Amino acid sequence: MSTSASSVESFVCVHKEACVMIYPDPELQTEVMNSQVRCKYYKEGCKWVDKLHNLQGHLDVCRYDSITCPNQCSDILSRLSIDDHLEFSCPKRIVICEFCNQEFPGEAFDLHVGNCQYEIVWCENKCGAKLERRYLNNHMRNECHKRTIKCPYCSKEFVYETLQTHQYQCPRYPVPCPNRCDPVKIPREEVDIHVQELCPSATVSCQFKYAGCTHKAARYSLDRHMGDNTKHHLQLMCDLVQKQQTQITQLCNALYSVTQVTDGTFVWKITDYKQKFIESIYKNTEIVSEPFYSTRFGYKMAASVFLNGNGSGEGKYLSVYIKILQGEYDNILDWPFLLPISFTIFDQNSDPEKRASITESFVPDPTWKHFQKPVKDVDQLGFGYPKFVSNEILKTRDYIKGDSIILRVKVDNSHSSFS
Ligand SMILES: [Zn+2]
Ligand SMILES: [Zn+2]
Ligand SMILES: [Zn+2]
Ligand SMILES: [Zn+2]
Ligand SMILES: [Zn+2]
Ligand SMILES: [Zn+2]
Ligand SMILES: [Zn+2]
Fold first, then answer.
1. Residues with beta carbon < 5 A to ion ligand 2?
2. Which of 89, 98, 136, 321 is most buried as measured by Cβ atoms within 10 A of its Cβ?
């Protein structure tokens, strides 16, 4: 490498002695500049090959070289794509809308596309209509036969073209009363109720129909019928009440016969013991049970008690008695009554092992007047035990529990000729 002394002197590298200075070599430079090179964009596809000194000139026009957008949009693009950019995507390009013929900068046009009011579009309801976008709203809201619309009567939504058909079924569509009672129309779904309950022209039965009045007339004239027929209606009601009274009695009898005891074992719970006991101290009250039967078609009888005793037991004992009553089947039964009878007062201890219930029983003697065929329901004392159990014993154990005593009267049917 040849160098001139003057240029060495005038150029001192900051690195001084440590630095090896580089000097131009015109010959080598010429040689290098004449060497064949490819365009630096050969990988992108540029086929240019030429001398190195022509490279810069090529790069100024190379289609693959990057340049800034001539519209100053700040994009850097290859020359290759600049035409596309300028025409279609440069935000600073000027575009004319084909529908409205207005000029737009690129950015504004991108927003305008799809919104141009002069663009011809299909109706979104798919009715088949095509029209400028500016007419679309009005068309879809007011003209399109596929638009949805609320039924003015029931407020449900329908496609416009089916609304007509809907009105033949719409439950709220106003229709005239079938009796032509009033110029005002009624919602279809209320016609039945109107005719049944309100229509003044509907033919209705008199309110006393169930008592037997057969009168039928228009509802509006019913008041007059009622006014004119008070006596007649009252008579009908009177008859009806009597008929029902008979039925009630029959029902009561039937109910009684299915609920009363018919197997000779009568269990009798006497509640409110304390209060009834005090009452019997002062009044010596006899408490008589419901009647019951020894068998389904047997003897009718009832039990009775004196809580504070009676006769020889008065003041100290619980007395229990049995009374033979006049029954339905007395005429086919054996007399005198001779079946063994037992009375039991229960010990209500919750442990069955510990219970000590008290039982007394007897067999009636054929001579005793209490067991002859009863002539009528005379209020006479029954037969039994004036000293059944003493008040002292009754207070012990669980004979009285929950302020109640439980008595059982049992007819021994095993010897009966009719059971
Ligand atoms: Zn190139
Ligand atoms: Zn641009
Ligand atoms: Zn436009
Ligand atoms: Zn339409
Ligand atoms: Zn409707
Ligand atoms: Zn009507
Ligand atoms: Zn009537």
1. 69, 71, 73, 75, 90
2. 321
Helix (H) or strand (E) holding 116: none
In this structure, the answer to whether residues 216 and 324 fall within a common structural domain is no
Alpha carbon distance 365, 301 (integer Å)? 17
The number of the ligand nearest the C-alpha atom of 216 reads 7
Distance 163 CA to ligand 6 centre (A): 27
> Which residue range is the domain that position 45 belongs to?
15-92
Query: Cα of 71 to ligand 3 centre, how many Å?
Result: 23
Ligand 4 centroid distance, CA of 96 (Å): 29
Q: Which ligand is nearest to the CA of 233?
A: 7
Same-domain check for residues 273 and 248: no
- CA 208 / ligand 7 centre spacing (Å): 5
User: Which ligand number lies closest to the CA of residue 232?
Assistant: 7
Question: What's phi and psi for 391, nearest 5 deg?
Answer: -60, -30
Q: Cα of 209 to ligand 6 centre, how many Å?
A: 22
Q: Quick one: residue 265, left, alpha or beta (phi over 0 = left, psi -120 to 50 = alpha)?
A: beta
- Strand ranges in 191-340 using DSSP code E only, listed in sequence order: 203-205, 216-218, 265-270, 287-288, 292-293, 300-306, 317-325
Distance in Å, CA 41 to ligand 1 centroid = 5
Give the domain-ending residue among 259, 276, 291.
Answer: 259
Identify which ligand lies nearest to the alpha carbon of 90.
Answer: 2
Output helix, strand, coil percentages for the chain, rounded to the nearest 5. 35, 20, 40
Mean pLDDT by 10 residues, the chain (419 residues): 41 59 78 87 88 88 86 84 86 89 88 92 92 94 91 92 91 91 86 89 91 92 93 95 95 81 88 94 91 89 94 93 91 92 95 94 90 79 92 93 95 68
Whether residues 245 and 208 fall in one domain: yes
Q: Show the tokens assigned to 215.
A: 């009168």
- Put simply, whether the predicted model's pTM sits higher than 0.70 gets the answer no
Q: Does one domain contain both 215 and 318?
A: no
Name the closest ligand to CA 193. Answer: 6
Whole-number Å distance between alpha carbons of 317 and 315: 6
